């Protein structure tokens, strides 16, 4: 058995196995949250792609790359999304240096 | 690749036959419900050579509908209440009888559609067709695979986007694509790669805002059409070794609501030589209607109750939100 097989993406609808009621609530919420709202479906798909990238989820990257393509997003736009994710992750990491610097300053004589 | 080879390739790659999927969903045999659309493919010759074209149209093709077959079509339209006349090709303007046909067909007061690639309408020889379309209140449908030049040119050829936008501008000047003008200009989106089209409403929003902002042009509706695994697109799928993945996506995305609304149930497609088919895709795959009839043997009662001829390419019309010459066929989920 291998981890992260491409065909596993097709298993996503089956996550309700053994807990169908909870899964149904999740799928309803998921459809509502990612569908057209005040933000367009296209904008939400770009956000989802950025989250997928920063969370290192190969299934979500696959699904949302395809969805972005189907909504007319081009490759340059998608690459910009990855840079936003990368910049955010770098910023989040560096922002946490505050904790380190605060502790260091407290400990310094 | 000839029609028989294409059908054989699709048979070998599909894990489940389309008719079995329909049967499992209580939809087989698929029967016609009437004839609302007479679609006429009046030539396979085209000035473009698009890489998604199921007709495999191009400058090298010679098939052309004669005036006599067009007269047969007019007779059938006169005798029967068929609400829509849908003319396609190739590039329909190349057929020397198109203008004559439109001037006559418009008198029947039906919905009259021409699927034009628009690019010929800047040429001296074909420029007058804009007047012809206005005069006959022709609804124009044109393919614009993407709202950016790169995507469209990749599929339709160098500078196609720029030319199409220029012609849309000229059509807008005549009222086409403007609300309340009565002159309708619809665009067709189809994916520029090996994936299904996205939400028609989302893409319509994007096309409308981008084309207006970037190019100042208007249109009425956007039809999202799935690329069928037929003709030149099938060859690209094979060349890129993506046919199996694409067919799996079509099969996994089978949508009963789309199957219930497939266009073939209410369409008859006529080829350049007068042979009848259930749709333009069947025409290219040489799968004539059940009775193998010619336009001269058109009988409305037989057509209305005929059994649709199906093969595995039909998965293209039932995947996701569905696909037809008028765009999606299943209501989009909210």
Explain what this protein looks like in three dimensions.
Chain A has 109 residues and is mainly α. Chain A is 68% helix and 0% strand. Chain A has five helices and no strands. The longest helix of chain A is centred in the last third of the chain and has 21 residues. Chain A starts with 19 loop residues before the first helix and ends with a helix. The model of chain A has no long low-confidence stretch (mean pLDDT 94). In chain B, strand 5, helix 8 and strand 6 form a beta-alpha-beta unit. Helix content of chain B is 37%, strand content 10%. Chain B has a single domain, classed as Alpha-Beta Barrel (TIM Barrel), CATH 3.20.20. In chain B, strands 6-5-4-3-2-1-7-8 form an eight-stranded mixed sheet. The mean pLDDT of chain B is 96. Classes of the chains: A mainly alpha (109), B alpha/beta (334).
Secondary structure layout:
The complex is a heterodimer of chains A (109) and B (334).
Chain A: H1 20-34, H2 41-54, H3 58-70, H4 75-95, H5 97-107
Helix pairs in contact in A: 2-3, 2-4
Chain B: H1 3-13, H2 18-24, E1 37-41, H3 67-79, E2 84-88, H4 98-105, E3 111-115, H5 129-135, E4 139-143, H6 149-156, H7 160-173, E5 185-189, H8 200-215, E6 222-224, H9 231-239, H10 243-252, H11 256-260, E7 267-270, E8 276-277, H12 280-284, H13 300-304, H14 315-318
